[in-house]
Amino acid sequence: STEFGVTDEFKSSFSEVVAETFVKELERSDALAVVDQPGPGTLVLRSMVLDVVSHVPPTYPGRADVYLSSVGEATVVFELIDAESGRIQARFAERQRIEPPSRTREVSAMPATSASVLTDVRRWARAAAVDLRKALEKRAR
After folding, report:
1. How far is CA 73 from CA 2, 55, 88, in A?
2. How far apart are CA 20 and CA 118, in angstroms?
3. Distance between CA atoms of 3 and 20, rounded to whole angstroms?
4. Which residues 6+ apart lie within 8 Å of 15 measured at CB?
5. CB neighbours (10 Å) of residue 37?
6. In the chain, what is the straight-line distance between the N-terminal and C-terminal CA atoms, in Å?
């Protein structure tokens, strides 16, 4: 099998990494301000990561190193909601592969570890967050 279950601990780490990465990237915007309270002229960003598929086998004592061409894949969904009216202003969804940075090779040059997998997730989340920030900035101008 090339698909494996995801532990509750990894789900929690995955969610934390994705949320942290999106907030940091959106805070980089010159055209937008990230606020912690809704009010006039604000949008609520609701994001979801759905249908996460892991290609990372579970660890167990004595397991040989594992080299991956893909950490997994997931669907990201964003909704922009007017804070005052509650109406959805925009919705975006895209399924993406989460891959190690070695685009020139079919398999990562480094063995997969929990740290390297989370680094790949962070890289994937940042790329998605950059796309979202640019789309929001374009809309704001």
Report:
1. 12, 8, 26
2. 12
3. 26
4. 49
5. 6
6. 48
